[in-house]
Amino acid sequence: MSPAIDQSISLLTDIAYGIVFAAAASHVARLLRQPLILGYVLGGVLLGSHLGFGLVTNEANIELISEIGLILLLFIIGMEINLRELVKMGKSMFTLGIVQFAACVALGLLAFRFLGYRIGNGNFDLLYIAVAAALSSTLIVVKLLHDKFEIHTVAGRLTVGVLVLQDVGAIIFMACQPNLLNPQLVNIAQSLGLGVVLVVTTFLASRHLLSRLFLAASKSPELVLLTSIAWCFFIAGLAEIAGLSKEMGALIAGMSIAAFPYGTAVIGTLSGVRDFFVTLFFVSLGLKVPVPT
Fold first, then answer.
1. Helix, strand, coil percentages in the chain from 3-state DSSP, rounded to 5
2. 125 is in which domain, residue-wise?
């Protein structure tokens, strides 16, 4: 048997293990009245080689597949966002996002300094940990909001806006972090500029080009779905090239076609596929849980 076939069988086996263990652990989580996400992660822990049975040794297999779920989830969330309502909350959203990020970084600096971390002599471990602690997992937060049907509430929309601002803050920090003693303002401006160009270009292309493409494909639901997915991954790829995350690109892609009349059908079709891949994402998180030291 060729190595390629062996690798394919290994991938399918790992996916099968992931789904089976996630399903079993999710039933336990449901009985304990816990979020299903905990069941997915527990399934990954049981599969992993650190704390589990070691049934999945190649974590990259599931991790690669799970990224698709993350991209699809953010794409669907973007399609469900009413951009006009988000713009109306602009002042509140920006204020909340900036205050949240700054306050959490400050609290992180105080807390981790108390634990013995310091800044000085070129050592920025304290700052790195504080910034990391101030950021939220977009996938986990959005998934919980979606499961609780709170994504369309005022609090839900504000939360999504704050998550976007957190990503912007992370981009700025990553642009600075190669040399925090002498941050390159050009790199920061370049990262932000590329992000703005991507957003503007995406919405212009959506309005003047993609709308016509969807109109031409409107008689074939299958073609509408395929065009939507292609648009999602195309913008996600451009976002990665521009220095943004693929997930942010998927969110932008979804928001750019949110007003199209085909959105509901696309969301309904993608939801099942999304849940499959998102489950594997949380399983991959469980696989990485290390042995406590």
1. 80, 0, 20
2. 3-287
